[in-house]
Amino acid sequence: MINDVKKSAEQKMQKSLEAFKTDLTKVRTGRAHTGILDHVVVDYYGSDVPISQVANVTLLDARTIGVQPWEKSMLAKVEKAIRDSDLGLNPAAMGEIIRVPMPMLTEERRRDLIKVVRGEAENARVAIRNIRRDANNELKNLIKDKAITEDEERRAQDDVQKLTDKYIAEIDKALSAKETDLLAV
């Protein structure tokens, strides 16, 4: 029973960490990366689909993304979808390919993005702590049900705390890497 509680808590913490890392990829730096367009949806014959399902998204160089729709008729729709997204990008069609240059980030914008990233990190830490609290409550309930002893509960709480520390350290590591990335010109 204790192992189930610990395993469940670790799985939830891992999912929280992955969600945080996914959120970090959405915050753009000055460099181009194809993941930035993952959440752009295109109107494809009446249904909204992710851009990756109607076009090939590649890096042309460090500051430019290339989007090549599989159907020529989709060129204008894909370009409009990128332009209308809230990413602040200005795509330009050149023949069969759409070039999406990444604009330079101003110092002020970099500072704002760091604040956003730190807020995301704090939300992730809170999620990890909430998982720890839930796991500890489950352990207390096991004591009430006389399923485990108090010594077992204390050891299990220590293990849950070690897991919490480990995942918060991972969040801090990812945060500092993203801050470094954002400050790099």
TrEMBL record:
Biological-process GO terms, alphabetical: cytoplasmic translational termination
Domain of life, per lineage: Bacteria
Presence of the UniProt keyword Acyltransferase in the record: no
Main location: cytoplasm
MF (Gene Ontology): ribosomal large subunit binding
Entries under CDD domains matching the protein: RRF
Domain annotation Ribosome recycling factor: ranges: 20-183
Localization: Cytoplasm
Any one cellular-component term (Gene Ontology): cytosol
Gene3D superfamilies per record: 3.30.1360.40, Ribosome-recycling factor (1.10.132.20)
Pfam families for this protein: RRF
Residue ranges the record marks as coiled coil: 132-166
Keywords linked to the UniProt accession: Coiled coil, Cytoplasm, Protein biosynthesis
Listed HAMAP family: RRF
Purpose of the protein: Responsible for the release of ribosomes from messenger RNA at the termination of protein biosynthesis. May increase the efficiency of translation by recycling ribosomes from one round of translation to another.
Family: Belongs to the RRF family.
Name assigned to this protein: Ribosome-recycling factor
